[in-house]
Amino acid sequence: MQRDVAVAAYWLDEAASRSELVSQLSALLSDLPILIAAVPKGAFDDANGIIDDLAKTISDNVEWFGEEKRTAITRDEKFSLVLVSKRSLGVPQLSSPVTLPDWFPQWPCELLTVTIKNVTDSIDISFASPDIPVASINASLHALESALCARLASVYGRAPTAAAKLRARLGGSKGPVDLIHLISQSEDKRRRVAPDDFRPGGSASGEYLVSRLFSQWWECSHKDLHNLAVDIAEALDIHTGSNVEAQHSLASLLTRTVKPKLADTPPGVTLARNAIVSLAHAIQFTNAVHHAGDYPNFPAVLTISYAKDLSRSCKRAAAALGNLA
User: Fold this and answer.
1) Are 44 and 149 within one domain?
2) Rounded Cα distance, 195 and 318, in Å
3) Same structural domain for residues 200 and 311?
4) Would strands 116-118 and 7-13 be described as parallel, antiparallel, or unpaired?
5) Is the pLDDT of residue 140 over 90?
6) Which of these three, 94, 122, 150, is where a domain ends?
7) pTM, rounded to two decimals
8) Does residue 2 form part of some domain?
9) CA–CA gap between residue 236 and residue 268 (Å, rounded)
10) Cβ contact 282:252 at 8 Å
11) Same domain, yes or no, for 140 and 56?
């Protein structure tokens, strides 16, 4: 006779180390009737064999079903299987029920009918999570700071007036900032900190160029963001021509601005806009990490992917500037 059994199955995507995640989850859930298993290559890729693969996974992990686990299953009248995979479960679940092994606790030889639920997008994490690549963001900001300083110094040496508008912005009411002094100050400070530990902050009087640019972004209106990008591009001598390619991060694409349209904007100005928005979001993100208790949890996939996009964007901007003659 067929009846429903309290067996649940969940799918969890993990692009990094499956074995490490399996170990971590197994330790965390050790007192619960939850089996954590890595999905082997070739399994769960046939719509007609999903339940068969599920039953095989259970049988392959027979050693997990020791006395303690059997007692937990009987006690809770539940059993859950978490499948950790490098890929998403991309096939429909069409297979027929299969019979549980005769040694299975609580429901031996019962028919197994279960739908695997993907819970990857349901997991929330704190900004304090070690899964967030903070060191990568720090290093990318360090690389961008280095590239900005080198390019500005190079352009300023041959065309001092190119940075006039940017210097005026950075100096504010005190008058144009001494750009060479700021660059020298940044270089001196950067020599004392490892890239992975670089945390510039966003002070308007900060000792790093990215800190000063963050402050400009923070105070900048949507209407003035394009003008700020133009001033930065002019100081970098990338405001005309096509000596660089336009770059886009998710942060910059989602930041509203005014005309001109993206298609009508010089690539260098788009790169400058992308760089300042990305570095600003990166600094804001790392600040949140260091004050994680002040913020709620957010979806893990979104948080980690966004952190990676910020890091990638800052690194790409640094590389583009570094490749200029």
Assistant:
1) no
2) 14
3) yes
4) parallel
5) yes
6) 122
7) 0.79
8) no
9) 9
10) no
11) no
Residue 282 domain flag: yes
Average pLDDT, the chain: 91
Residues 167 and 25 in one domain: no
Residues in the chain: 325
151-193 pLDDT, tens digit each:
999 999 999 999 999 999 999 889 999 999 999 999 999 999 9
Where in the sequence is the domain holding 22, given as residue range(s)? Answer: 7-122
User: Please, which residues have CB within 8 angstroms of residue 141's CB and are 6 or more apart in sequence?
Assistant: 198, 200, 210, 279, 282, 283, 286, 314
Answer whether residue 70 is part of any domain: yes
Do residues 63 and 171 both lie within one domain? no
Q: How many domains in the chain?
A: 2
Q: What is the DSSP string of 11-79?
A: EEE-SS-HHHHHHHHHHHTTTSSEEEEEPPTTTT--GGGHHHHHHHHHHHTGGG--HHHHHHHHHHT-E
CB 79 within 8 A of CB 36: no
Please identify which residue in the block is written with the tokens 């000792």.
207
Q: Are 314 and 140 in contact (CB under 8 A)?
A: yes
Query: Is the residue at 287 inside a domain?
Result: yes
Tracing tokens 């490892």 back to the chain, one arrives at: 194
* β-bridge pairing 34-38 and 7-13: unpaired
Q: Reading across the β-sheet that carries 79-85, which strands appear in turn?
A: 34-38, 79-85, 7-13, 116-118
